[in-house]
Design a protein that fits this description.
The complex is a heterotrimer of chains A (about 260), B (about 325) and C (about 350). In chain A, about 35% of the residues lie in helices and about 25% in strands. By secondary structure, chain A is an alpha/beta fold. In chain A, about 40% of the residues are buried. In chain C, about 75% of the residues lie in helices and about 0% in strands. The longest helix of chain C is centred in the N-terminal third of the chain and has 35 residues. The chains are: A alpha/beta (about 260), B mainly alpha (about 325), C mainly alpha (about 350). Chains B and C meet through helix 6, helix 7 and helix 14 of B and helix 6 and helix 14 of C.
Chain lengths: ~260, ~325, ~350
């Protein structure tokens, strides 16, 4: 489904983007528009470039060629704090220093909003409280991170990113080490953020079925190239999955939820 | 929390206590009456000399240098993201030592006035070199540490050269200075040190939020809007300025920068807004105590404070880290 | 040189290296305040006739060069074994405090009059072993604390902490005990001057044992270097081989320290050069390190003596001047930072 050009002008857009590490090119000449206020999932095999693209969207990786555009302006031209107020990224497996409590962690999310001499304001307090409530971590706010389960810890990190109060949230494999119940929580949180808070969420997910079930927009990568993009029920075809993942799947349609399941 | 408050109060009150002890104890004990006589103006010339010219500047120097080292240590541990880091690991001290050694050996006694400048210059050159050489599309903790060790070894080789071949009297002076001592403290050096330290310490206090963020990985810090490489450069520069000034004034005193932040963390937690002042407090106390011990334990001979800190420091650190051995990942 | 068909090439390389080493050693014996020709050197060793020149060779130069060769070989192989056992490219006796431990033990023993002068090699060496072993354990324990186990960064920092501690202790001992300072001033920074044949002979059996063990067992080290998970899966007992590695390292590093003091960088640099030249197979790394290390230290000593026109110039300083830039290059370009 082609995107409205007006919508494409604002928000996140990748323009002939080329990314690489050292001499190794991962992605070349990528054009992609991230549809605003939707949940977009980047899918692909290991090494297909999806995480690399996500990091570039956050400005963590400088493009070798082309640009990541935010509202038409290249990301590199934004000051670090400015872009941190518009885009938040939660990298994979983040490490926290020892002894930090949930509350300490979430408060860090206010960094881009606080200048050198500003004191902890009402707005800061509200943002933190809201983030904790959204993620269901309000009761655990004084707990040290070490004492929490994997799912709770992940939600604490998400709360930190939420406290940043950005319009765009990037998540790199947010559910990879969580059990099913926690995965479902995170997915439902993301859906709430998009539907009720009008955020734009882009996530790299490993689980194709999760993506099919929850995403509004899927982008499939193979070997650094964009193979297909579109809503799940249109592009989750046997042909596409075979081409991108090199497996021969069975696609099962669940009438009740109107979702497709991929069995390999 | 209240037990922590108690410890903190005890620590703050120890400062004047230690100060008084430093004035009173030594190879010649100054009694309470003598100290009082200083206040009401009836002290003898000798008491005045011992306390006001020798011990007071020395104790204050220990306090100031210790505070500086505590702060530098907290910064180093945040930047390196590692509890075993201390300013010396950046090779800064070795550079300052080499520069100071060259001055001692070339100018003999007359070089005393140049020492602070030389030490500071050596430290800065070294820090700049470490940073420049470890820059490769940004920096990383491991690379900085390794290059710090490499350059530190080169500087150390230079110092060894001096030790091996210079005149024995110079070598003795050099070794004592290298061991780290507030032995030759005077009001002049104290003023110089304090002057050097004002700006960097104030900047360090302003940078507490940067330090807090620095503890997270590069990705998380960058995602929150910190300019990671610039931040690291700035903080290393601060650490160098503070540490270099201290080496210039007192020679190599290790372990304070290593231990003070740990103890401080136990007292006030890991937020740098509290950690920086607490590290300063603990560092000052540690060095004052070390100097006092060095002066009194094998009297009339003196053990340089830097050696006392090393002797007490390493086992103390082992004990602290032993308590962390079950830290979760 | 890679691949199995390169083996004859490697063997040839080793033989050439060995010949070069002998040649350089002979040159080193000839170098000094009075330049002696190779012919004279050979005559002095094989057809000794009591002349002054021949005495200089056998009493001064030969022991010095032999000590250098032995210490160099020992340190290089110790480094290679450490790198295999810890899986860490930075493991080396200097960096991880082992040298400092040995040095402190020797100085303490001397200060406490537990042994005689430096000439009494036999008693001293057991203190060096003890110090090296204790320091090694301390560094490993300290570097393993906290999450993630013994990573490079933690080990290096732990090594720095323990090393500094021991060096300070050494300095403290020397400040308090002036007599010992006079006796060991040069040795504390790593020096080969004044080595006697008696010292060399006293230390030789230990170094020979360590080197022989490492050579015989070198296949095992390749397996060990694959890491505990894989080597365990291949049936190698990690505990047994770690222990054996520790014994060999202590034997070699302790002996080297007893002989030449704490010389840094040989144990770090030589195995890396070997690895760059002949690949990651310890069947070749061990012998190449041994001969390369001997060559390196003897050359460093010769250069130091010649360049600075001083027969007492400590080889430790020269090694630092050579080794540190190489280490710099390693740190900047070859090590992946995590």
């Amino acid at each position: 489904m082609p995107l409205n050009d007006n919508e494409a002008g604002s928000g996140l857009r990748l323009d002939k983007l080329s990314l690489g590490y050292g001499n190794r090119m991962i992605v070349e000449g990528l054009d992609l528009v991230i549809p605003p206020q939707t949940f977009t999932v980047l899918l692909g095999r290991n090494g297909s470039g999806k995480s690399t693209v996500l990091r570039a969207c956050a400005g963590l990786l400088k493009p070798k060629a082309g640009a990541v555009l935010l509202d038409g302006k290249p990301l590199s031209r934004f000051r670090a704090r400015e872009s941190a107020r518009r885009i938040a990224i939660l990298p994979q497996g983040p490490a926290a220093p020892e002894g930090l409590t949930v509350s300490d962690l979430v408060r860090q999310g206010r960094y881009p909003h606080r200048s050198l001499f500003s004191r902890w304001s009402r707005a800061d307090e509200d943002a933190v409280r809201e983030a904790l409530e959204l993620t269901g971590m309000a009761d655990l706010r004084e707990q040290p991170l070490e004492n929490l389960s994997g799912g709770q810890r992940q939600r604490a990190w998400i709360a930190m990113s939420l406290a940043q109060q950005t319009e765009i949230l990037l998540l790199d494999e947010p559910t990879t080490f969580l059990d099913l119940a926690h995965q479902a929580e995170v997915m439902s949180l993301i859906t709430t953020l998009v539907k009720s808070r009008n955020k734009t969420v882009v996530a790299v997910l490993h689980d194709v079925n999760q993506a099919a079930r929850h995403a509004d927009h899927i982008v499939m990568f193979k070997a650094g190239k964009l193979v297909q993009q579109g809503p799940p029920n249109i592009i989750m075809t046997r042909e596409h999955v075979r081409r991108v993942f090199d497996i021969d799947p069975e696609i099962v349609h669940d009438a009740k939820t109107n979702a497709k399941f991929i069995l390999s | 929390m209240t037990s922590h408050r108690l410890i903190l109060s005890a620590a703050i009150m120890s400062v004047p206590a230690l100060l008084l002890a430093s004035l009173a104890l030594g190879d010649q004990t100054v009694s309470r009456a003598d100290l009082e006589s200083l206040v009401d103006g009836s002290a003898t010339g000798q008491i005045r000399m011992i306390v006001l010219d020798l011990r007071l500047p020395r104790a204050l120097m220990a306090l100031t240098a210790g505070m500086a080292l505590g702060i530098a240590g907290a910064i180093a541990q945040a930047v390196m993201r590692n509890p075993l880091a201390e300013p010396g690991i950046l090779g800064i001290n070795a550079g300052a030592a080499l520069a100071g050694g060259l001055v001692i050996v070339s100018f003999k006694g007359a070089g005393a006035a140049l020492l602070p400048v030389a030490g500071f210059a050596g430290a800065t050159v070294m820090a700049a070199a470490v940073f420049a050489l470890s820059w490769r599309n940004g920096t990383s903790s491991l690379r900085i540490v390794l290059i710090g060790i490499a350059l530190g070894s080169l500087a150390g080789a230079g110092s060894s050269f001096l030790i091996a071949f210079a005149d024995v009297a110079d070598v003795q002076r050099l070794m004592i200075w290298l061991s780290g001592s507030v032995y030759a403290a005077s009001w002049e050096t104290l003023r110089l040190l304090a002057a050097w330290l004002v700006v960097p310490v104030v900047l360090a206090c302003l940078a507490v939020r940067q330090l807090d963020l620095m503890r997270f990985g590069d990705d998380v810090a960058a995602s929150l809007g910190q300019r990671v490489n610039l931040g690291r450069a700035f903080l290393i520069l601060l650490c160098t300025a503070i540490s270099g000034a201290t080496v210039a004034a007192c020679g190599l005193i290790g372990f304070i920068g290593l231990i003070a932040p740990h103890v401080a963390r136990r007292m006030v937690g890991a937020g740098h807004a509290r950690l920086i002042p607490a590290s300063a407090l603990v560092g000052g106390l540690l060095l004052m105590a070390a100097d006092l011990i060095g002066r009194t334990v094998i009297a009339p001979a003196q053990l340089p404070a830097g050696i006392v800190t090393a002797l007490i420091g390493a086992p103390f650190l082992g004990y602290l880290l032993w308590g962390r051995r079950h830290a979760a990942q | 040189m890679t691949g199995r068909h390169a083996d004859p090439l490697r063997a040839l390389g080793l033989a050439i290296l060995f010949c070069v080493c002998i040649l350089v050693a002979a040159l080193a014996i000839g170098a000094g305040t009075s330049r002696l020709s190779l012919v004279t050197v050979c005559e002095a060793i094989f057809a000794f006739d009591g002349s002054r020149d021949h005495l200089v060779v056998t009493m001064l130069r030969l022991p010095r060069v032999l000590a250098g060769a032995m210490a160099g070989a020992a340190l290089a192989v110790a480094g290679a074994v450490m790198q295999a056992a810890t899986g860490n490219p930075l493991a080396s006796p200097g960096l991880l405090g082992i040298n400092a431990g040995g040095a402190f033990a020797v100085v303490a023993a001397m200060a406490l009059q537990m042994t005689g002068s430096m000439g009494d090699g036999n008693g001293l060496i057991w203190y060096a072993f003890g110090g090296a072993a204790i320091a090694g354990f301390a560094v490993h324990a300290l570097g393993s604390l906290g999450p993630g186990g013994p990573t490079s960064l933690k080990l290096v920092l732990a090594g720095a902490v323990v090393g500094t501690f021991l060096t300070s202790l050494t300095a403290a001992t020397l400040i308090v005990d002036q007599a010992t300072l006079e006796a060991v001033r040069l040795w504390t920074v790593g020096s080969l001057s004044g080595r006697t044949m008696g010292q060399v002979v006293a230390v030789a059996p230990y170094i020979a044992t360590g080197l022989a063990a490492a050579l015989v067992l070198r296949r095992q080290f390749t397996t060990l270097s694959l890491g505990p998970n894989i080597s365990g899966a291949l049936g190698q007992s990690a505990l047994l081989w770690r222990t054996i590695s520790v014994v060999i390292v202590v034997l070699l590093a302790g002996s080297a320290v007893a002989l030449a003091g704490p010389v840094g960088f040989v144990g770090l640099v030589m195995p890396h050069i070997a690895r760059l030249t002949v690949g990651a197979d310890y069947r070749w790394i061990v012998p190449y390190s041994a001969i390369g290390g001997a060559l390196l230290l003897v050359t460093a000593d010769m250069i130091g003596r010649g360049l600075f026109a001083n027969q007492d110039f400590p080889v430790g300083v020269t090694m630092a001047l050579i080794g540190a830039p190489f280490f710099l290059w390693l740190a900047r370009y070859r090590l992946r930072s995590s």
